[in-house]
Amino acid sequence: MTRTVFEKSDAIALVAEVFRELGYEGASMSSITARTGLSKGSLYHFFPDGKEEMAAEIMANIDAWFVTQMFRPLEEDEPRAAIALMWETTNTYFRSGRRVCLIGAFALDETRDRFSSAIQGYFKRWIEALAGALMRAGVGASEARELAEEAVVGIQGALTLARALGDDSIFGRTLGRLRERLMEALGRRGL
Amino acid sequence: MTRTVFEKSDAIALVAEVFRELGYEGASMSSITARTGLSKGSLYHFFPDGKEEMAAEIMANIDAWFVTQMFRPLEEDEPRAAIALMWETTNTYFRSGRRVCLIGAFALDETRDRFSSAIQGYFKRWIEALAGALMRAGVGASEARELAEEAVVGIQGALTLARALGDDSIFGRTLGRLRERLMEALGRRGL
DNA sequence: CCATAACTAGACTGATCGGTTTATTATAAA
DNA sequence: TTTATAATAAACCGATCAGTCTAGTTATGG
Fold this sequence. Notes:
Chain A contains ten helices and no strands. Chain A is mainly α. In chain A, helix 4 (51-76) runs antiparallel to helix 5 (79-93). At the A-B interface, helix 6, helix 8, helix 9 and helix 10 of A face helix 6, helix 8, helix 9 and helix 10 of B. Chain A binds a DNA duplex through residues 1-6, 28-30, 38-42, 44-46, 50-51.
């Protein structure tokens, strides 16, 4: 019997894609083994506590990626550049609307109860990081908060509707609309 | 052994609530019987084809409700009044953000494939009905379409974030923001 | 080259899955 | 009443579930 060797990071990425497609409850161990090519032995080697550990590690992985690619730049770098990067990163990460937000999907059913603090932390940090960048760019606190909330809400809604309608174009249009609104708010204070 | 008698409409409403909480895959027959108080005998009496029929009937039920309460008014009644009613209906139906959109939740995982036309039809009609009302109120076609899309996207996104953050207030704020934007567009043409 | 550890394949287990069947009880027409 | 039908309860079914275990194979460090 021939053997394929996986790295844990590969396993995380592969399993994440299955959760994205089937949801937490919908992803059975057998569907995970079938779709990833990882045997149960491998999966329980990497994730001794099974599905729940898989999901937890995947979410931590996603969160860490967003922190380095988006949140920290928003929090620390030049705000306008970081915001511009955010739109790029968002569009790329979600594959122009073809990829669902796993954390958003987990939030909708009782999966949320298992991972509530991770889910809450992710969205809270996104909104706060964006609001902070807007404020550093000169936008007033309350308007910055409103705009940031609106942006993250819009991204999540667009992902839902892109899937529901089977039409990615709504994602691009929404991102464009939201970006325009932020640009407008930024434009009003010092060019 | 004592017996409780249910109506089918009761069964639909009760099971719908379980799907809303657990998702389609997460809702097992035993969890449905436990939470609704309906026995398997009753459930399979009302829904001979099991879970799939339950979900299909629930979605048809939701769709019919939205058609009479929201879509038809938007399509046929005085547009400004119908739009005002839409915000009321939306806020009431989703219990100020505490209740998830079942159809939106189904859209995110592979449940979508089972019910794609129903899911797509629901959101398409919502957007088109709202866009139509805006046009009849004097808003240009392309702007009406944009605004309608933005509104439905925003509602779905707000529902996701309300659950994710465990904070309903974001739903009310989003609805207020969206209503304001529509009012502004309506205000620009003939008061 | 060997020894040990890291890793993988897949058979296996008890529990639970969606769904069926049988038996019983309520309802309502005759 | 009687009788037919609608509705409910629960035992039961094969399939699949998450998770375990064993027997291996491959990588590595000496």
